[in-house]
Design a protein that fits this description.
It holds the Pfam family Molybdopterin_N. This protein is of the alpha/beta class. The chain has a six-stranded mixed sheet with strand order 5-4-19-18-17-6. A six-stranded mixed β-barrel has the order 24-28-25-27-26-29. α6 runs parallel beside α7, α8 packs parallel to α13 and α11 packs across α12.
């Protein structure tokens, strides 16, 4: 009788789990202490599916035969299997050629941080550490998720506290009387957390608030952006019009004397300037409920009713990250902060505002008061950078000037792109344009686990292990556990860890010791753990050395802070606890932003009419998927089970579907001015009329360009690649104008999950 499989502790962005290899494949058991394990764990076994894995180093044939240089065949060429020795020799030689001939400002270190929940095998940290010791690299700043907010918030409140240290769920469940949820609080997004999560607790905290009598208002074009059992009042506003509604709520509160005049005077800067705009003194247009109704589609009477309820209750205004992922995305966030200031409940338990609740599981969960084991990246000698969502502009327009946060910058001339961790052909907009951008460098070097579109646009593809094939330390600042991420499987094929790959490159470039510091991977884990322990306060020390911790598999971290009220100290004494803004207060009018002279982001929250695109009558909402994290493990059971006709599902209101002769299950063509995509239709009254919803993350499949830009249903084949404004240059992929029609003709197969080379 065979011995039972040995389960080992592990962790992921969507939760801790135990896993073991069995004759039937990988078995995954959710963490026993998690009250609501993420359904995304069903995707984990697909990480070991050899059919899609990059199992050996490969080089693009054209690059091998013709050498480095811009190449229109990049993205559609053949691949040739090569040895690790040849792959590392060629990669190191090309890195050295570029830095020697053009300088390190010609190297772009592309990476995104969601590859692993581990503290050591964090691809972005590993790559940037290597490139720093090799002379430096051009980096990106901010994120696709919250790029506009990351630039705006320091101007308005001084830092990123509303994202990093919001009022915690325990406080909201106990004190909030009315949750007004702009963009919703979707359970699907709260399945995941950067660095992992051992307890998914948001849903239960919201139910606890509901049982206590809290009221919920959902402001979103999608009814399922808040759980049904919370009984929310649904305000299905037109996408991208949240700012109009917020300004009208501010107007109503002041007009009816329901505002907190003292708070506006003592804790805020610039309300008189904002009121001149709200009242119509600036442009002759009062931002009244009637004005807002014409823009957002919510009846004026409903807006007045909402304002009165917000003033009558302890109100928490939640602002989803999705609000600021659009043109002028700074405005709904700033207007939401202004609305909370007009109410005057900031700093009170259960009141005020928060940005990003439900965008990740950790936001609102409380945070540890001490740092976690962290790999040092080192000092990057190169100062040049780009906002992360401007990577295609950088590659297409080297030397061109652009505005960013009060600076006039110039795109560097990139000769080599080195990418490890992340899939830009998921995150970025207008993927056909991104594909053209990727033809411009001399060389694209990619570390990849799977044959994603990013791997298929590389010159050298280096196979990298998944977390299941290596050891690591799993932890997050918003979670009270440190998990020993044991190796569950040997590496598939010839895959190596990023650390091992970069160590080989560092050796060839003469900087091996600077990169490895003489440690192998296990020694690094022990060093990170013991160095961390040595810095902890005595009461937080887990009392286990590394060997004991590794045998145990997990330790609970003490001194987590489940109860915190954002800006409580500032409210109590705004002079002693000044905010790090120029005025020390919340800036409803920012003289600094106004001084930049940006017509697309003036000095106070402002309404901008949507930019119309004639011939495209529907608004596409490209939100995060419920069945995977970004594009990760799109071929996994949970993700694959949601496909319609083998493609990503697109939802449409019954009235819009009937007007086009469409039914659930149809393969439809979704068109925009940028491109087109095939998707599988789902007719649903949970979507506002005039809106279609297509989640991001289907692996980009351009294999039938005569039919569609993507035949698998990736919405970024449709979205517009422009910045949120000249202030932040953030991602604008949330909303785009489209038309949807029935697809006529032979439906092409989806080849995104077919590797371009034999295993």
């Amino acid at each position: 009788m065979p011995e039972p499989a040995a389960f080992r502790s592990h962790s992921s962005h969507w939760g801790a789990f135990d896993a073991a290899l069995t004759p039937a494949g990988l078995a995954v058991h959710p963490d026993a202490g998690d009250p609501a394990p993420a359904a995304l764990l069903r995707n984990v076994p697909a990480a070991l599916d050899e059919r899609l894995r990059v199992l050996a180093p490969y080089a693009r044939r054209g690059w091998l035969e013709r050498g480095p240089g811009p190449d229109p065949d990049r993205g559609r060429d053949e691949y040739v299997r090569i040895s690790w020795a040849e792959a590392l020799d060629r990669a190191a030689a090309e890195l050295d050629r570029v830095r020697t001939r053009y300088g390190n400002t010609a190297i772009f270190g592309g990476s995104y941080g969601w590859g692993s929940a581990g503290r050591f095998h964090h691809a972005q940290s590993q790559l940037h550490r290597f490139l720093a010791v090799a002379g430096g690299y051009v980096r990106s700043v901010n994120t696709y998720s919250s790029g506009a907010a990351e630039v705006l918030l320091p101007h308005v409140v001084g830092d990123h506290a509303p994202i990093e240290r919001p009022t915690t769920w325990a406080v909201l469940a106990e004190h909030t009387g009315h949750f007004v949820c702009f963009g919703g609080l979707p359970d699907k997004n709260a399945q995941v957390n950067a660095g992992g999560v051992t307890r998914h607790g948001m849903a239960e905290e919201l139910r606890r608030a509901k049982r206590r009598g809290a009221r919920f208002t959902l402001v979103s074009p999608l009814r399922d952006d808040l759980a049904d059992d919370l009984g929310a009042d649904w305000l299905p506003l037109a996408p991208g019009t949240d700012t109009a509604l917020m300004l009208a709520l501010c107007f109503t509160l002041v007009e009816r004397g329901l505002h907190d005049e003292e708070f506006l005077h003592t804790h805020c800067e610039g309300f008189p300037e904002l009121w001149r705009y709200l009242s119509g003194s600036v442009d002759g247009v009062p931002k009244s409920p009637q004005w807002a109704e014409a823009r957002c589609g919510i009846p004026a009477g409903k807006i007045v009713e909402l304002a009165e309820s917000m003033a009558a209750h302890r109100t928490m205004i939640t602002l989803s990250w999705s609000l600021q992922r659009s043109r002028h995305g700074e405005q709904p966030l700033w207007a939401g902060v202004a609305l909370a200031c007009v109410l005057g409940q900031i700093g009170l338990p259960g009141g005020g505002f928060g940005h990003g609740y439900a965008s990740m599981a950790g936001i609102g969960a409380g945070s540890l008061p001490f740092p976690l084991p962290t790999l040092r990246r080192g000092l990057n000698p190169v100062r040049e950078f780009i906002p992360v969502a401007r990577v295609a502009d950088m590659l297409l327009h080297p030397g061109e000037e652009y505005d960013y946060n009060g600076q006039r910058l110039r795109y560097p001339a990139i000769r080599l792109v080195h990418w490890a961790g992340g899939n830009p052909f998921h995150h970025h907009q207008d993927l056909a344009r991104l594909g053209r951008a990727f033809t411009r460098p001399d060389t694209v070097l990619v570390h990849e686990q799977f044959w994603t579109a990013t791997a298929r646009h590389a010159d050298l593809v280096l196979p990298v292990t998944t977390t299941l094939e290596r050891e690591d330390l799993g932890a997050a600042r918003q979670d009270a556990a440190l998990v020993a991420m044991a190796r569950v499987s040997p590496p598939l094929g010839e895959a190596k860890s990023d650390f091992e790959i970069l160590s080989g490159l560092a050796k060839r470039l003469g900087v091996e010791h600077e990169f490895t510091e003489g440690r192998d991977e296990r020694q690094w884990l022990e060093w990170l753990y013991e160095s961390w322990r040595a810095k902890l306060p005595p009461e937080a020390d887990p009392g286990l050395d590394f060997a004991e911790f590794w045998r145990k598999g997990r330790i609970e971290l003490r001194e987590a802070r489940p109860e915190h009220v954002l800006y409580a100290d500032f409210r109590a004494d705004p002079h002693r606890h000044r905010l790090p803004t120029p005025s020390g207060r919340i800036e409803l009018f920012s003289r600094r932003i106004a001084s930049f002279g940006y017509d697309d982001c003036p000095g106070h929250p402002t309404w901008f009419e949507p930019e119309e695109e004639p011939g495209f009558p529907l608004t596409l909402v490209a939100n995060n998927p419920a069945t995977r994290l970004h594009s990760q493990l799109d071929h996994g059971a949970e993700s694959a089970g949601a496909k319609v006709a083998g493609r990503e599902p697109v939802r449409m209101h019954p009235g819009d579907a009937a007007a086009r002769g469409l039914s659930t299950g149809d393969v439809v063509l979704v068109r925009s001015p940028r491109g087109s995509a095939l998707a599988g239709l789902v007719v649903s009254d949970a979507v506002r009329p005039g809106v279609v919803q297509l989640s991001t993350g289907a692996w980009f499949d351009p294999t039938a360009p005569e039919v569609a830009t993507c035949v698998h249903g990736n919405p970024n084949a449709l979205t517009r690649d422009v910045g949120s404004s000249r202030l932040a240059q953030g991602c604008t992929g949330q909303l785009t104008r489209v038309e949807v029609v029935a697809f006529r003709g032979e439906v092409p197969p989806v080849r995104a999950h077919e590797p371009p080379v034999p295993g």
